[in-house]
Amino acid sequence: MPLQGSMSVERMCQLTEVSRAGFYRSLQERTPVEEDMELRSSIQQIVLEHRRRYGYRRVSAELRRRGMLANHKRVARIMREDNLLAVQPRQFVVTTNSDHELEVYLNLARRMKQEVMPLQGSMSVERMCQLTEVSRAGFY
User: Fold this and answer.
1) Are 70 and 60 within 8 A, CB to CB?
2) Is the dihedral of CA 74, 76, 79, 83 positive or negative?
3) pTM of the model as a whole
4) Would you put residue 21 in left (φ > 0), alpha (ψ -120 to 50) or beta?
5) Which residue, 43, 5, 8, 42, is CA-closest to 23?
6) What is the CA radius of gyration of the chain?
7) What is the DSSP string of 30-96?
8) Would you write out the chain's pLDDT as a tens digit for each of its 140 residues?
């Protein structure tokens, strides 16, 4: 153990009731808040430059290209805290093939809906039975 004056680090820790790990941890430099804020602002700038299309992997790669080293987990955590998650656009996929030789039928359900829906608010039980062709005796 290295000596501090005439005492070892272990003895000083015993006298002050501090663990050796805690003593050495206090000697390490704390990460400055400025560095964290600089990283956070760089992440926000990158995400907004690319219209929120970049996820944490692409943002991490872009940070590396710009010369800033940051763990991908840290980038993901900062993006999650700042609500900068990527929004992927969904491409419109046409599923209907309208270029065919088959006959096109009228949409009868749309017409029926237009006729029935206005009556629905003020419709009586008798009118509903007439429309659905259900007799009142069989209904109750």
Assistant:
1) yes
2) negative
3) 0.46
4) alpha
5) 8
6) 35
7) PPPHHHHHHHHHHHHHHHHHTTT---HHHHHHHHHHTT----HHHHHHHHHHTT----PPPPP----
8) 555 678 888 888 999 999 999 888 887 766 677 888 999 999 999 999 998 889 999 999 999 999 999 999 999 999 999 999 888 778 888 888 878 888 888 887 777 766 655 555 556 666 666 666 654 455 54
